[in-house]
Amino acid sequence: MERKANEAAAAAAYEEFEPFCRWQRKEDHDILEIHLQEFKREQLKVQISNYGILKISGERTTSDASRKTRFYKEVPVPSTKYDTPAIRAKFVSGCLYITLPKWKNSAPDIVKTRHPKWSKPLKELQNWPPKMNQRHHQLILRSKQ
User: Which CATH number does the domain housing residue 62 bear?
Assistant: First the structure.
């Protein structure tokens, strides 16, 4: 019983809020601007998951030190549109700027990419499935009988 009371007190000590956010859309990149006036850089965390979710969070003690204020925001980042390994964050004068570079052709150029185990370009896989010649087709028909 005492444990539940302590957990409830800890939850009440936090004040959740939603920070003001604004998108700046550019031709080659987008910028997510998040206004966090009373936060310091050390109080913020920016991560991207393997599933393409940008997770932004922050926690700080209020000026009277009686409570803590925090926020948590998730933003989907499609890997077909953005170069996720090149995403960068910068905190300047109470604003967090997250730069999301776009792919040149709005999607990665898979055709020119090579797999380390394959010696042929993936471009050949675009013609999949291969067209069957007459003999191959006949062999398949015989196996079904």
Answer: 2.60.40.790
